[in-house]
Amino acid sequence: MKAIRRFSVRPVLPESLRPLSELARNLRWSWHPETRELFQSVDPEGWRAAGGDPMRLLGSVPAARLAALAEDRRFKRRLAAAADDLHDYLTGRRWYQEQPPGLPAAIAYFSPEFGITAALPQYSGGLGILAGDHLKSASDLGVPLIGVGLLYRHGYFRQSLSREGWQQEHYPLLDPNELPLTMLREADGSPSRVVLALPGGRSLFAYVWQARVGRVPLLLLDSDVEENAPGEREVTDRLYGGGGEHRLLQEMLLGIGGVRAVRTYCRLTGHPEPEVFHTNEGHAGFLGLERIRELVDAGADFDSALERARAGAVFTTHTPVPAGIDRFERELVARHFGPGGELPGIEVERVLDLGLENYPGGEPALFNMAVMGLRLAQRANGVSTLHGQVSRQMFAGLWPGFDPEEVPIASVTNGVHAPTWVAPEVLRLGARQIGQSRAEDALTVGGSQRWDAVADIPEADIWELRRTLREQLVEEVRTRLRASWRERGAGAAELGWIETALDPDVLTIGFARRVPSYKRLTLMLRDRERLTRLLLHPERPVQIVVAGKAHPADDSGKRLVQELVRFADDPRVRHRLVFLPDYGMAMAQKLYPGCDVWLNNPLRPLEACGTSGMKAALNGCLNLSVLDGWWDEWFEPDFGWAIPTADGTATTDDNRRDDLEAAALYGLLEERVAPAFYDRSAGGLPGRWIEMVRRTLTTLGPKVLAGRMVREYVERLYTPAAEAQRALDADAARELAVWKARVRDAWHAVAVDHVEAVSDTGVNGTAELGSTVSLRVSVTLGTLDPSDVEVQAVAGRVDPTDRLSRTSTFPLKPAGAAALDGRRIYEGPLTLDRTGPFGYTVRILPAHPLLAGGAEMGLVALPPEATGENAGVLLR
């Protein structure tokens, strides 16, 4: 029989134990060891059965045990200390509160997924884990962030394997009442709701649930509302589920409904209204339209509202491939924003123009969410230095006339939340060196360039730590492997071999991530005999732990999983290579610390950042990776290995490229990695390996912190965005919008007519370092005034085709009034500050104090092919 109604019956805690409820509901416990240890002591067996989830634990503790704890003075002292510590954490001054005035009063951070803890499964992979780490680090730093997402009743999916190794998906139903969430309620106790208008007079209602991530509130919108029709109730059913209209409605609810949820939360709690809105990937891009709608309803015209919304917006792109961007049919978007749909005060054509791919190679029939995100944000960034370069090339069509290097997309390299991902044993070793408080500050706030205290840790202690973590991983793997084989239908008599799966003294390599084709899960299988020899080497064996999920709709990814599983099932190697299904946060927290080497072999440059290697590095695991994402930026031979990539002609043949890069991987493992691990001194210690571990912790540790990342966002993006937002009041926004329209209308008449250059050496074609070239440029501005533009000289290296690189810009100044024909003269010196091939050009850009940069409007006037004498290349 099935129940017709479901309830969550919560225990009534004795008065003296009531603080347990507050501790369980604030997700700080997920990164605070002392709080977790307190819950574990409530009922150690129940804690294991609950998977380390305090809410589930408290729902299962027998009443007699609670009564005993209520009389246990030692436990109550520990509980009071934990409650006081949480109170101090939530109310005390932190890094943000110690900064000079002018920082944003609040920042709203929107993401389609958040990986906070396995107890709140609202994530699928790196994007969600990054978002969760962003919130946790903001909390540690005291940054007044409000997180905004969706509450998926089935989460992502749970993965298992068939007997044949084929991925199978399961979608368990999540009851919000059994999760560490509270419903946002009005003053009268009724649930707070947001509502969106849908075509045909329908409505989409959503509740707002709140998770407390330390100091940061996370608002999650839930469409499972009785007033909704069945289709609308299912909008928030699954993370990245469905397609077409279903995904569009999810993203409308996230963006538009998310802004409305933030407004409701601030109204009910008194939290400061956000000055900055951060869109984490394009899924939440509609938030900009809702902010425009708010301003239009208050009396602004669309263009000035657009300027005000853009000023305080930050857009982060995480994808290096166009296929990773959500795009919708324009007709579908038009239907939802046309008559009877959402945002009735905004013309649907203005909405559609924001997502229009009106650039070479674009598809005008599609609405591009990332393009809209970039057009609705004055500041944008990629998530590593290399990814910033890739993004500038990828979106260069939005800024015609500018080289990719000048496309206004910056980069802030991702980081990881160390208290979440550092094993307790690693933290304790650090605390022994510098004390508990300093160790915690080093992991959360960061700020130092090196952790030199690691240099004083004895070699034997480091090696013992690494073996302890490896041993823990082996036990974890055996437990999970046995459960997986039982789920695949194996009987107990078939599983005796699992007791010998992996060895705590063997070099252990980890590989775990999502399974799109570009991450190349099966690259290690290109030469199976060579891999087998590596695994079974009599003196230097290797063992590999692999995990990963393919998207439910990605059969090619599932075939890759099956190919690897079938190899791992081979009795010859199954004790050396294992595949663990259902990769998630709980598994990852054992996997990263327990591996000696973290493997990453994507197709370069398709890895935006790749933070799993960062988490491994924080635990003293060495990286073996293609130079992509963050590894391209920070790799040094002292703490890892770079897998050579087959660039050039090989890249035109995927098979050839994979063969070459797999051979390079095998060679590194055979000739450098395994020998370094097994080369032992007389005392049995691998000195070179231990030194690489030490260098990893000393040099990489401070760089990979999410605390460093969030501080960079505050200093480089959030604070400038807040300043721009404050500068654009209604009058300033109206003036800027009118000015932009006037400049766009007049730009067709702006031109560089003639350039003259005179070198102080008097030599044509060559000049000496340090000499000066005097430029005299004739320009036509049409109806524009000199105050509307900046005339620049752009100088730098030139290649054989006369293309400029490594450029610097120099403003030129007007010389006198306009001539009778309307032309104006600009002049200025150009110093030759480098040797070798050197060249320059001149250009005209729009200029206004409220622009974030010269490329913002995508307008530039360049010289025609021949503009005058002695111009162009000076040195060759």
TrEMBL record:
It catalyses: [(1->4)-alpha-D-glucosyl](n) + phosphate = [(1->4)-alpha-D-glucosyl](n-1) + alpha-D-glucose 1-phosphate. It comes from the Bacteria. It is an enzyme of class 2 (transferase). Residues 13-120 form the DUF3417 domain. Its cofactor is pyridoxal 5'-phosphate. Keywords: Allosteric enzyme, Carbohydrate metabolism, Glycosyltransferase, Pyridoxal phosphate, Transferase. Pfam families: DUF3417 (PF11897), Phosphorylase (PF00343). SUPFAM superfamilies: UDP-Glycosyltransferase/glycogen phosphorylase (SSF53756). The keyword Manganese does not apply. InterPro entries: Agluc_phsphrylas (IPR011834), Glyco_trans_35 (IPR000811), Glycogen/Maltodextrin_Phosph (IPR052182), Glycogen_phosphorylase_DUF3417 (IPR024517), Pyridoxal_P_attach_site (IPR035090). Its EC number is 2.4.1.1. Phosphorylase is an important allosteric enzyme in carbohydrate metabolism. Enzymes from different sources differ in their regulatory mechanisms and in their natural substrates. However, all known phosphorylases share catalytic and structural properties. Belongs to the glycogen phosphorylase family. NCBIfam families: more_P_ylases. This is glycogen phosphorylase.
